[in-house]
Design a protein that fits this description.
single chain; 366 residues; alpha+beta; MutS, DNA mismatch repair protein, domain I; Dna Ligase, domain 1; 4-stranded antiparallel β-sheet; 14 helices; disordered C terminus; DNA damage; magnesium ion binding; DNA/RNA_pol_sf; damaged DNA binding; UmuC
C-alpha cells in the first residue's frame, strides 16, 4: 500500500519484566519464582513484577499488601536502581552499534530509527533480532521488539509476542493490523478512554476509523486528531535522540498515613528540595506547579497553578505547593505527596526541533 507520508524503519525495544529480571539474573535462587521489586514494607508499592508473579495478578503500582494477598509465595526484593541503570547503559551501547537515532523512554525501553544504519542492513526485522541476541549475550536478559513504519505501530507491536519475541508490521500490513486491533491495545488509550470509546460503539481500530474527525474532536477534544491519524497509520513523530522532558517531579510514599496539613509541610519541604536538585541537574525551570495527593483509599487528586514566570528554586516551589495544599480541605488521610513542574523552558527548543525536522519519503520492505 502507498502512503502519502514519510515511512521509516522504526524498532521499539522493550526489556521483559526488567527490574525483576535483573534481580533473577543476579540471584539465580530467584529464577522461576514469583518476584516483586519493592512493596515489601507496610506502606510499600510494587515497582515491578516477574512474569511468574504476574500470573497471580501482581502488577506494578500495586500495594505490597494486595500483591502478597494475590500471591502468598511472592518474594519481595529491594530495588537497586544503580544496578538497573548500569545494565541499561550496557543495553544502550548495543543500540548505538546500529544507529545514533536512539530515543530512550526509560531504563528498559527505547525507539531506534534504523532507516539508515551503521551496519548497512536493509532489514529492520533482522536488526531487531540481532539486537535482542546481543542483549541476551551481554546481560543475560531477554528483550521484545516491535518493528514498523512509525513509532506508534512499533510500540504496539512490541507487546505482541512478549516475552522474548518480536513482531514486524510491514507497510502493506499496517492498515489491516490497525483495523483488527482491539481499542485497548492502542498505545495511549487507557482504561477510562477505552470505556468511553466502548460507550460510543468503538471496540476496534475499524470502528474508530469509521468515526469522522468532527465526531472524534467532539468527544475527545485535542486527542481526536491523534486518534483519527494513528488508525490510518499516520504518526509523524521522529525518533529524538535527546528527548525533551515535559515535566520534572518528585514524590514520597509515607510509612504512616498523614492526617494533618501541618505534618505534611515538612514532607513537602523535602520533596521540594529534591525537585530543585533535579531541576538544577537538568538546567531547566518551569511555570506550572502540580501538587499530587494520593489518599489512604488510593484515590488520586492533583492541584495545579501556573505562574507568570519560570521558577526552579526550592523556596518558590514550596511556597506554591503550600498554597495548593491549603486550597481545599483534604478528603482523607494521605499516603503519598508529590510535586511536579511543567510548562518548562524547554518548549522553545522543542518547537525549534520540530521546525528543523526533515522527513524523507522512503519506500522499502521492513
Amino acid at each position: 500500500m502507498d502512503f502519502d507520508f514519510p515511512l521509516r524503519k522504526i524498532i521499539h525495544v522493550d526489556m521483559d519484566a526488567y527490574y525483576a529480571s535483573v534481580e533473577q539474573h543476579d540471584n539465580p535462587e530467584l529464577k522461576g519464582k514469583p518476584v516483586a521489586v519493592g512493596g515489601g514494607s507496610k506502606r510499600g508499592v510494587v515497582s515491578a513484577a516477574s512474569y511468574e508473579a504476574r500470573k497471580f495478578g501482581v502488577r506494578s503500582a500495586m500495594s505490597g499488601h494486595m500483591a502478597q494477598r494475590n500471591c502468598p509465595e511472592l518474594i519481595f526484593v529491594k530495588p537497586r536502581f544503580d544496578r538497573y541503570k548500569e545494565v541499561s547503559i550496557q543495553i544502550r551501547e548495543i543500540f548505538y552499534e546500529y544507529t545514533d537515532l536512539v530515543e530512550p523512554l526509560s531504563l528498559d525501553e527505547a525507539y531506534l530509527d534504523v532507516t539508515e544504519n551503521k551496519k548497512g542492513n536493509p532489514s529492520a526485522t533482522l536488526i531487531a533480532k540481532d539486537i535482542r541476541k546481543k542483549i541476551f549475550e551481554k546481560t543475560g536478559l531477554t528483550a521484545s521488539a516491535g518493528i514498523s513504519i512509525n513509532k506508534f505501530i512499533a510500540k504496539v507491536a512490541s507487546d505482541y509476542n512478549k516475552p522474548n519475541g518480536q513482531k514486524t508490521v510491514n507497510p502493506e500490513e499496517v492498515i489491516q493490523f490497525l483495523e483488527d486491533l482491539d481499542i485497548r491495545k492502542f498505545y495511549g488509550v487507557g482504561k477510562v478512554t477505552a470505556e468511553k470509546m466502548y460507550s460510543l460503539g468503538i471496540f476496534t481500530g475499524l470502528d474508530l476509523k469509521g468515526k469522522s474527525l468532527e465526531f472524534l474532536n467532539q468527544h475527545f477534544g485535542k486527542s481526536g486528531q491523534h486518534y483519527f491519524n494513528v488508525v490510518r497509520g499516520i504518526h509523524l513523530s521522529s525518533v529524538k535522540p535527546h528527548r525533551i522532558p515535559k515535566s520534572v517531579g518528585a514524590e514520597r510514599t509515607f510509612f504512616e498515613n498523614l492526617s494533618s496539613e501541618i505534618f505534611m509541610l515538612e514532607k513537602l519541604d523535602n520533596i521540594a528540595a529534591e525537585l530543585e536538585r533535579r531541576l538544577q541537574k537538568s538546567k531547566i525551570a518551569g511555570k506550572t506547579i502540580t501538587l499530587k495527593i494520593k489518599y489512604s483509599d488510593f484515590t488520586l487528586q492533583t492541584r495545579s497553578k501556573t505562574l507568570p514566570y519560570f521558577i526552579a528554586s526550592k523556596d518558590l516551589i514550596l511556597e506554591t505547593a503550600k498554597e495548593l495544599l491549603y486550597q481545599s480541605t483534604l478528603e482523607n488521610s494521605v499516603r503519598l505527596l508529590g510535586i511536579s513542574l511543567a510548562n518548562l523552558n524547554t518548549e522553545k527548543e522543542k518547537a525549534k526541533e520540530k521546525k528543523e525536522a526533515v522527513l524523507v519519503q522512503l519506500k522499502f520492505d521492513l
